[in-house]
């Protein structure tokens, strides 16, 4: 066959010609027709109808009780975290979300008729949350964790809808997404959903308590904890077989919430409750990075829901020996200084003022570094980010605050100080390739 | 031990332990008393100076971390007789009450203006967040930074 039959000019034509070389002259044509037919068939399968727009409902048409319930559920789902731009109006969207596939901008969830969800019916909202389909029929990107939200009951979704539709409308268009081609082509998402969207309710385990089952419902559904704490495959789907084995969140490492959790002292439901409610557990450390906004949300929801979440997560970490006496935190000061003298010097000048024995902060019930989980994790990323970015108190300026050292310590110095801290405060093996990991963490920090 | 350090363009040799906070060396050894000791824990920003143009807390920056990088303090910006644009703007806006935070505020704001000559108000607020003023002159500080950047300063007073 010759190249001129293929309607692509230049290099592409030559490549196409190579592709079909050796086949019967008609094969190329039939092949092209077949591929086109399959593509059209797939496109037809991925097609979803629009749901008719409704007149913007009056806020007074929603019962106050339902709106109040929706407000709590929206907190449990952390809607405002992704759907609020930095310094922007709550829930008005346009926040840049960096993903391995490009940058997405969150949608406006206020009932603005032009740029928000003003014309969305409750059915359209339910479909978006459960199937990841916009009112227009377009597939939504799984940055909206519909593979979790699909488990939420219709009554709860309707309450969230009532809450959103009674917010003050904000006119704000989200910038266009910047994705790696061809991912801007939304019908492809239908294929993604075939693998990763598993609909249906969270199964009730009659052998467990009501509290545990409530926790399972919240964690697997609205809370979408697995979104960060479960590793993802190359297609960006959660690896179900390794649920809660630790994942990635905005350049931080989300620690494992299964039996491989690295904490020095096992997490109990009480410790988890304290951590989730206040942002700090005296036996484990402080909420940092993307966990801060989660704690901020959980600080204001009913106590029983946070206890339920704690009970369920603690059970997922089971397999560790919770009954053993709490070990005293390690402090191998002399040995660590011998192995990492530069790190020891930097630690003395930069860290010991707060973390050293007898420092004022240690008198406030803050955990010794010997108990801080990040230092014990196999992955140093979160310990590095805490040093680079610091820790902001999650709830209204209260709680632990650590300054960031990104501008005062070089990559090599961060690596030195962290190698020292690991050797001094844990019995874990040295981290390898630390300086490269610091460089990478710094780069991810600079992303939107 | 003796350690070399570059401050405001001049090389100094100081006799200090490598884990000594930079702030102590600046104030104690070099008699540069602009940067202040506030909390000593990197929480208030009174000790802010610049390291290679970036604002840092000198109270939690060990001398060993400085190396060959260049330190710049408020004394390196201008003098009472020859203030730089930002210092003049602080004076014009009366952006101080007790003045304890001023050197740190100015060094942090200058780092922003050097990187972004005309920042918007949101950028200034975000950038200045780490520095505290117990007298409550934040709005004046904000106006001083806007003024130094040549941006319109609105009339609201504080």
UniProtKB/TrEMBL annotation, chain B:
This is (2Fe-2S)-binding protein. Residues 1-77 form the 2Fe-2S ferredoxin-type domain. GO terms for molecular function: 2 iron, 2 sulfur cluster binding; metal ion binding; oxidoreductase activity. Keywords: 2Fe-2S, Iron, Iron-sulfur, Metal-binding, Oxidoreductase. The lineage of its organism: Bacteria, Pseudomonadati, Pseudomonadota, Alphaproteobacteria, Sphingomonadales. It holds the Pfam family Fer2. InterPro entries: 2Fe-2S-bd, 2Fe-2S-bd_dom_sf, 2Fe-2S_ferredoxin-like_sf, 2Fe-2S_ferredoxin-type, 2Fe2S_fd_BS, Beta-grasp_dom_sf, Diverse_Oxidoreductases. The keyword Iron-sulfur applies. The keyword Iron applies.
């Amino acid at each position: 066959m010759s190249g001129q039959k293929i309607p692509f000019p230049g290099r592409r034509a030559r490549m196409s010609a190579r592709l079909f070389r050796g086949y019967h002259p008609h094969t190329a044509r039939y092949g092209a027709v077949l591929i086109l037919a399959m593509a059209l068939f797939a496109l037809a399968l991925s097609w979803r109808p629009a749901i008719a727009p409704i007149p913007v409902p009056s806020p007074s048409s929603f019962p106050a009780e339902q709106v109040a319930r929706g407000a709590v559920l929206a907190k449990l789902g952390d809607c405002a975290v992704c759907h609020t731009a930095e310094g922007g109006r709550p829930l008005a969207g346009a926040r840049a979300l960096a993903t391995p596939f490009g940058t997405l901008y969150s949608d406006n969830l206020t009932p603005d008729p032009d740029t928000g969800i003003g014309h969305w019916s409750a059915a359209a909202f339910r479909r978006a949350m459960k199937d990841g389909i916009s009112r227009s029929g377009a597939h939504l990107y799984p940055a909206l964790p519909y593979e979790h939200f699909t488990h939420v009951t219709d009554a709860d979704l309707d309450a969230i809808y009532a809450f959103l539709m009674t917010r003050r409308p904000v006119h704000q268009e989200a910038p266009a997404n910047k994705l790696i081609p061809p991912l801007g082509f939304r019908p492809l998402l239908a294929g993604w959903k075939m693998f990763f969207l598993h609909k249906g309710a969270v199964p009730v385990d009659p052998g467990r308590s009501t509290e545990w089952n409530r926790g399972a419902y919240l964690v697997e559904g609205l809370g979408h904890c697995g979104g960060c704490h479960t590793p993802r495959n190359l297609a960006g789907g959660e690896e179900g077989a390794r649920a809660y084995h630790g994942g990635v969140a905005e350049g931080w490492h989300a620690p494992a919430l299964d039996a491989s959790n690295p904490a020095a002292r096992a997490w109990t439901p009480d410790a988890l409750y304290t951590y989730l409610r206040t942002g700090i557990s005296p036996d484990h450390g402080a909420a940092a990075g993307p966990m801060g906004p989660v704690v901020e949300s959980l600080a204001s929801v009913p106590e029983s829901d946070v206890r339920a979440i704690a009970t369920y997560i603690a059970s997922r970490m089971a397999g560790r020996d919770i009954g053993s006496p709490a070990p005293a935190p390690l402090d191998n000061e002399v040995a660590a200084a011998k192995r990492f003298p530069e790190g020891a010097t930097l630690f003395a000048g930069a860290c010991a003022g707060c973390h050293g024995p007898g420092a004022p902060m240690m008198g406030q019930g803050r955990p010794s570094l010997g108990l801080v989980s990040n230092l014990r994790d196999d992955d140093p990323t979160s310990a590095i980010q805490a040093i680079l970015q610091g820790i902001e108190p999650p709830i209204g300026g209260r709680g632990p605050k650590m300054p960031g050292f990104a501008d005062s310590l070089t990559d090599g110095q961060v690596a030195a100080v962290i190698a020292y801290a690991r050797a001094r405060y844990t019995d874990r093996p040295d981290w390898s390739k630390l300086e490269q990991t610091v460089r990478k963490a710094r780069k991810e920090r600079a992303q939107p | 031990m003796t350690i070399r350090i570059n401050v405001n363009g001049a090389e100094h040799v100081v006799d200090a332990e490598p884990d000594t906070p930079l702030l102590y060396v600046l104030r104690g050894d070099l008699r540069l008393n602009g940067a202040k000791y506030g909390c000593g824990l990197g929480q208030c920003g009174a000790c802010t100076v610049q390291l290679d143009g970036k604002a840092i807390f000198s109270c939690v920056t060990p001398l060993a971390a400085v190396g060959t990088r260049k330190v710049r303090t408020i004394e390196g910006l201008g003098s009472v007789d020859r203030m730089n644009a930002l210092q003049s703007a602080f004076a014009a806006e009366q952006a101080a009450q007790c003045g304890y935070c001023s050197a740190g505020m100015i060094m942090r704001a200058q780092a922003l203006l050097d990187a972004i000559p005309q920042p918007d108000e949101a950028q200034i607020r975000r950038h200045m967040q780490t520095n505290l003023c117990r007298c409550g002159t934040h709005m004046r500080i904000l106006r001083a930074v806007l003024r130094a950047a040549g941006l319109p300063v609105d009339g609201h007073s504080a």
